[in-house]
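<tokenise_the_fold>
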Amino acid sequence: MKGFIFVCAVILVIGLTSMANAQLTSASAVSALTITPAGAGIAVGNVDCDVTDVIRGVCYTVVFDATGGASIIFPADNGEATTDLGADITGDPGQDVLVQWTLPTALTGSAGVIPVSFGPTSQVRIEDGGLTNPGVGNTFNTGTGGAISVRLGFNFCVPVAALSGDTYAGTALCTASYTGAP
């Protein structure tokens, strides 16, 4: 009987050794993969325009002078003045961004409206001075600095019936979105 127990013990040890060797021939592990994009996405900052001291019955043109770095108004014979109208867009460097505008056709005041129009080359990209049409979507690259700055020019005629000192206002909405292509 002792022999039988000894043989059973040897078989059990050999079996456990074989199972241990079998367990070592195959193994697996799960590894996590995490990707975290840099940057905070895309942001659009507004650049509000203020046109002052315009004369009733006179038509004006506002343009962005890329060389001078500011908007100017024509004519400016009577102290008329303007500031820039546009948007400053920041995003990830080297990305293509579609810039689209919803532009007003008139500015509203208490005495009525002042029609306003934007021409086919009235959008200026500050970084390179390039002219584009703000009435259609335009794709710009953010470059190494991750920025796009655009300014708008426009035309308007002040009606003779406009009230002196009244304010006429409207909005220009800029939407910027990544195109998915660098």
About this structure: The two ends are 82 Å apart (CA to CA). Residues 2-23 form the longest helix (22 residues). The helical segments are 2-23.
